[in-house]
């Protein structure tokens, strides 16, 4: 009687043990993931950093100079020429006359020394006169051009030389006219005719100066009155944007 009750109890315990042994181990709980947005990035406030104090030299220590940007390192446009042409023309004439005198003196002396050493003193004066003429031909346009450039002129050297050559032709023609007819002209008249190459060089320089000023003014007006377009890139809430910025 007792054995008949013991067998069902043992069978029940055995079935419950096997069922508990076959249960799978519980997985660790995971937190649910959602659409999380990161917080906005905020830049740190910039602190005002005072400039370093000037270091004064003590005793016999050499002074330390800080590097600075000089005016020559910055790009700048040429200063505009003066609206009054009288000072510029006066300096052109003065520079042309000085250049002619210096050129004639230097090359004339060189011609004299060269002639006396080669062809003798009898023919050295001819070589000296040729050297003086060449020095005057070179010195007058160069001196005129230098004087105009010193006054911020816009003339060119080529037309200056051409104007001087025209002046030399007028001088030779004037000398032949005033000394014709069997009587020579006074020395003062002959000397005054030699100013014509200087005047011709100044006229050639001023003509090109006026032409250059007209070209500069026309280009300045075309830049100010024309249509200018510039690409512009921006970034907004909806993303990057591209566009054109124009001025009329």
Key features of this structure:
two-stranded antiparallel ribbon; 2 strands; mainly alpha; 248 residues
Description:
It contains 6 helices and 2 strands, in the order H-H-H-H-H-H-E-E. The chain has helices spanning 2-21, 85-118, 124-150, 157-178, 187-192, 196-225, and strands at 228-236, 239-247. The longest helix has 34 residues, at 85-118. The N and C termini lie far apart (118 Å).
Helix and strand sequence: HHHHHHEE
- Ranges where pLDDT stays below 50 over 5 or more residues in a row are 71-76
How far is the N terminus from the C terminus? 118 Å
The radius of gyration is 49 Å
Strand content: 5-15%
What spatial order of strands do you see in the largest sheet? 1-2
What is the structural class? mainly alpha
Give the fraction of residues assigned to helices: 55-70%
Query: Number of helical segments?
Result: 6
